[in-house]
Design brief:
Layout (H helix, E strand, L loop, with lengths): L2 H8 L5 H12 L2 H4 L3 H7 L4 H10 L5 H13 L5 H4 L6 H18 L2 H13 L3 E5 L4 H12 L5 E3 L5 H5 L7 E5 L6 H12 L3 E6 L13 E3 L4 E2 L2 E2 L2 H18 L1 H16 L27
Parallel strand pairs: 1-2, 1-3, 3-4, 4-5
Antiparallel strand pairs: 6-7
Length: about 290
């Protein structure tokens, strides 16, 4: 949804002062993206609290959240790979964008938020993990980590959503990753799961995401561009933090499962037994890799 559409949807409840603010925002969204509350209040000839109330009426927790959302909107004007590939080299900005996104992810995923996101994943009968294409790295990390901690964790791919989710029911939990530009399949699948009584955990990019309206258990990540494509790092970080929290919540049960996995890995010689060269005896005659039967 654009800022124009958002303001239009709330126009009937805006006060005269808030309408002044809205006109300035519509004329030049970059004034919000890169200005302060005081700047916007001065331009609209109104007060700082009026600006904060305006942001709240649009559905944001405060001005800073509105500002972050508009910044994302400005950046998405050049958001597709076909548009980015035609722009000048922006490699010098990548590190700063990623560092900021990671810092914000740690801030968002505080202990209380992690507890809320992890809680249904510890007790659910089945856990279903879905994702759009560009956020699939986070989904893989989450499903792999959870599957080593508890049974009945399934990563669902877009081409097999109907087949894989036909057994989902109340008592299950689903984690859905998706960011703008939102993909149709994971969003519609999330809605269908909620209708079936499945507890939804959403990893997305803001309160106006179609996923955020489906559940109270969601978190907001900022997804910067890395060259032509959106970064996978914030989603991967969120997945790793959730897995760590689930492990803490499961306690002894997760430790027992890891021990069983380790035993099976040893029995099936899953991992290559490798001796670093500088630790081998008789280095001159030693092979590069030491592979032994279990």
């Amino acid at each position: 949804m654009s800022i124009q559409d958002l303001i239009a949807s709330k126009s009937s409840i805006l006060t005269p002062s808030e309408r002044k603010i809205a006109r300035i925002v519509l004329d030049d969204p970059t004034r919000v993206a890169f200005g302060t509350v005081a700047d916007l209040a001065r331009q609209a000839q109104t007060s700082g609290p009026s600006v904060v109330r305006f942001a709240a009426k649009l559905g944001f927790d405060g001005y800073s959240q509105l500002q972050a959302w508009i910044q994302e909107g400005v950046s998405r004007q050049l958001s597709t790979p076909s548009q980015r590939i035609r722009q000048r080299d922006t490699r010098t900005t990548i590190r700063g964008s990623i560092e900021q996104a990671i810092a914000l992810a740690f801030q968002t995923l505080d202990p209380n938020r992690l507890e809320s996101l992890a809680a249904p994943l510890t007790t659910a009968r089945y856990v279903w993990v879905l994702s759009g294409e560009t956020s699939m790295a986070g989904a893989h990390v989450l499903s792999s980590g959870l599957a080593m901690l508890r049974p009945h964790v399934h990563l669902v791919f877009e081409h097999s959503v109907g087949r894989d989710l036909c057994g989902a029911a109340e008592g299950d939990a689903a984690v859905v990753f998706d960011f703008a530009r939102y993909r149709r399949t994971p969003i519609l699948a999330a809605k269908a799961l909620v209708d079936e009584g499945v507890e939804l955990v959403a990893i997305t990019d803001g309160p106006l995401s179609p996923l955020a309206s489906l559940t109270q258990r969601w978190c907001e990540l900022r997804i910067p561009a890395v060259g032509l494509f959106d970064s996978a790092l914030p989603a991967v970080l969120a997945a790793e933090l959730i897995v760590a929290r689930v492990a803490d919540e499961l306690g002894e049960a997760s430790r027992e499962r890891i021990d069983q996995l380790e035993s099976l890995w040893q029995q099936t010689a899953t991992y290559l037994e490798y001796t670093p060269r500088d630790l081998r005896s008789g280095e001159g005659n030693a092979p590069p890799i030491d592979v032994r039967s279990p």
